[in-house]
Each structure stands twice: as structure tokens, then as C-alpha cells.
Amino acid sequence: MELKKRIITIAIAVVFLSCSSGYAETIKQIDQTNTIKKAQQSDAAKKALKEAAEKGKEKANKMAKIVNKDVVQGLKDVKAAIKFLVKKKPEVENAIKHLQSATGEFEGSVSLDKDLAFAPVENSLQTYILVASSDEVERELAFIEDLIEDGKVQDARRLLMPLRSEVVVQTTSLPMITYPDAIKDAIRQLSDGTVEKAKEILETAMDTLIIEEEIIPIPVITAKNAIEKASKMDKKKKGKVLEELKLAKEQLKLANVLGYLSDDGKLHDDLQGQIEKIEKEVKGENKVEKLYDKVKAKMEGLFD
Prior knowledge:
Oligomer: single chain
Low-confidence stretches: 1-41
Shape: elongated
Number of strands: 5
Order of helices and strands: EEHHHEHHEHHEHHHH
Radius of gyration: 25 Å
């Protein structure tokens, strides 16, 4: 089956949310070539998205509180210097001026914090919503495996890209142990007239920025919310309670298929087993308070 003839059943909607921080934010676009339908979000999905976004913003705000504004300004000066050097006729004096300013910012920061190893300088908050069932994802993964076996790695890669449902908090940090020294070295090279060497040093320094990601899986939050909702519902409304528990089981399976749960499926099986115990009890005497407490505690532990 040719890839271009394949009807992809998985839809993904991408929502970008900016975080309320005092430093720069970067928003990246992603390839949506494989998107052919856009499904409406259920109330559960909307609630999960909102909670995931709030958790992401909370993390971003924590990073904002420890950001060093002097380091951020220093990095801006370095970027400005690079712009002066990549011109057809490099403006060396302006580049040196900005690099010297950056050095002063970096040295001032280190003098205030001798243990400063990595300084956060940039942050982004991105949300990826996958509208698909666990069965659809499993079928897609099986097809991707066939592509890989046939040596069609790039086709497989394009199909894998949309298989994510998460909020991503990305933080870029500057390594203070090596970066400031590299800038000083670039200044020396420019002073000696070796512009190309200075450009090479600066380009290498930019490549040493550290990018960290914290991923908050939306299916896990949807499952947690469904269990929470079920635990607070009227016990007499067994049908609606069972619907919420069914949603929780499906979302946990989706999270597992997407690779968000660890332990080779053991955690997934454990959680599914606990929910099934609740389902059984709901259908019977409906004495489920302790069972709910146990599974909720397990779910909450996923975010520690």
C-alpha cells in the first residue's frame, strides 16, 4: 500500500500557549501533513487540556523565577554580535562592543552566584492534542512497523510525528562553565583580525546551549479527571459512573500505547486492574471509597 494512498485516521490539533514569564518565549511549528480530519474535543478532553496547560504554566513560572536577566541580556548581545559578523562586510568593532558587553553581564552574574552552572534563558510552552482512540494508534503503529521493515524509514518517521498528546515545557539554559570563556576567546580572535575563527567559536558556543523538556501527558490527566469525577458522582447513577471509568481505562490504554507509562506496561496493567475492581464493586454493593483513594493516589504519583 503506497503511503500517499493511505487514509490516515488519526487527527491532531495543535494549540500553542505562551507562558507568563519574564523572559523570551519560543514557539515552534510542527508538520501537519498527516492531518486530514479535525474532531471536536469532548468536555473531558477540554478539561484535561486545561489542567495540563495549567501544570505547564506552573512549571514555566517556576523557571521564570530563577532566570538570570543579566545572562539573558548577555545572550542577546552575543546574538547581536553574530549578526554584525555574518554581514558581507563584517562590522568587527560593533561585534566586539556587543561581546564585551555580554562578557560583563556574564561575569556579573557569576560573581553574584559562584555555583551558577546553567542559567535558564528561554522558555516555550507547546500543546499537542491527539484525537484518536488507542485502537487507532495501535493500528497506525503496526503499519509504521511494516514501513520500517520495508526500509521506508522516512515514511515511518512522518507517521510517527503526530503520535503525541501532551503539553511540553521546554527550557533553554546557558552553560556558565564554558560559554563565557568562549565569548572571551572570540573577542581575542577578533582583536587579532581572525574573523572567521571568531565566527566559528561563536557558532560552536551557540550549539552548546542546553535544551530540557518536561512532558505532561494529556491522556493521563484525562484518566485522572475521569476517576476523580466518578468518585464524586451519586452512587445510584451507576451507568454514568461506569462511563467515566470506561473513559479512564481507554485514556490509560492510549497513554500506554503512546509510551507515556513506564515499566513495560506493568503500571498500566496495575491501574487497569484497580479500575476494574471499582467497576465490579459499582455493579455490586458499591462500596468503593477506599478503592477510589488507592487508584487516585497511584495516578497522582505519576506527576511527582
